[in-house]
Amino acid sequence: MLDNSNDDNTVDMIQGTATAAISKRYADKSAINDIISYYEDNIEILVTDELSSASNKMSIFELIRKTMDKKVSYGVGLFSAMIDGGINPIFSVVLANLLNTYSIPDRNELLKSSRIFALYVLLIAAVSGVSGLLKYFLLERASERWAVRLRHMGFGNALRQPQSWFDKSENATGKVTTILISDTESAKILIGHFAGNVIIGLVSLLGGIIWALIVGWQLTLVGFGLIPVLFLFSELEGYVLQKYELKQKIATETAANEFYQGISSIRTVYSLSIENIMENKFHEALQKPFLIGSLKEFMISKKCL
Fold first, then answer.
1. pLDDT (tens digit, 9 = 90+) per residue, 78-87?
2. Distance of CA 33 to the CA centre of its chain
3. How many CB atoms sit inside 10 A of residue 210's CB?
């Protein structure tokens, strides 16, 4: 009688364990479905194939227009960058007039004019501080949020790709991981830090040109004669650097994929005692992006000289 009771308890325990395992499996499946449904509900999923992969490529402006959700904040940040860029030529004009007041012979008129332009300098400093703060905060915040959203979209798209998509060498796990992390970080820097500085430079340049034309248009036109030469060399340098940047990006993705393959297969590596082989293979993969980066930095250093 006691043995039958123990057998019943054992059967109940086994059934309970099996039920718990089945429940856990369905719970895990439900969690996976929740993740996938999140991307289906909130993010556009693009299932690519060989014919449509080329058509999914888009420019940075189109990508921002379709994927950025904080366009208003980003626009205000760009407008603040324009104000910050216009501060430099305005400050130059005010400072020139402030220094010019020292040539006024009348002491009372000198004090009056200098105080007015000194207040202008304080006002410009306040506007520059506020615009610089808004530019930095809004652009960095919008770009950071955009980068996170791109990572979500990329991960959601990867979840929906067919198995054949992952079998291609260009879609290896290490390369996809590098793209989701590194490329989105580069895109964030591009639209956050770089775009703001470009706008500041362009507005400052435009303001300086206008002021130079007002002061002395003859000498300004003489200076314009060098612009085509500078533009030609800048375009040539940009073309060469872009080629090196693309080569370094591909080489870095290949090295990251080698690292991922070694770590993901670490048990096989240990069992076959091929640690040195994998280490040498990864070291060789790192040499190519290092050499390309060295050449690129050499060209950049020549530009600085």
1. 999 999 999 9
2. 30
3. 12
260/178 Cα distance (integer angstroms): 10
- Per-residue tokens: 126: 């306040």
What average pLDDT does this structure show over 98-104?
82
CA-CA-CA-CA torsion sign (209, 215, 218, 223): negative
Please give the residue range of the domain that contains residue 149. 43-217
| 85, 199 contact by CB (below 8 A) | yes
Nearest Cα residue to 189 out of 248, 133, 146, 251: 146
Would the pLDDT of 32 be above 60? no
Closest C-alpha to 60, from 237, 190, 219: 190
Q: How far is residue 216 from each of residues 164, 211, 212, 239, 273, measured CA to CA in Å?
A: 66, 9, 6, 35, 77
Among 198, 217, 236, residue at a domain's last position: 217
What integer is the mean pLDDT of 267-296? Answer: 80
Percent of the chain beyond pLDDT 70? 79
Same domain, 77 and 186: yes
Q: Residue 221 contacts by C-beta under 8 Å, 6 or more apart in sequence?
A: none
Does one domain contain both 118 and 244? no
Residues 137 and 185 in one domain: yes
pLDDT score of 53: 47
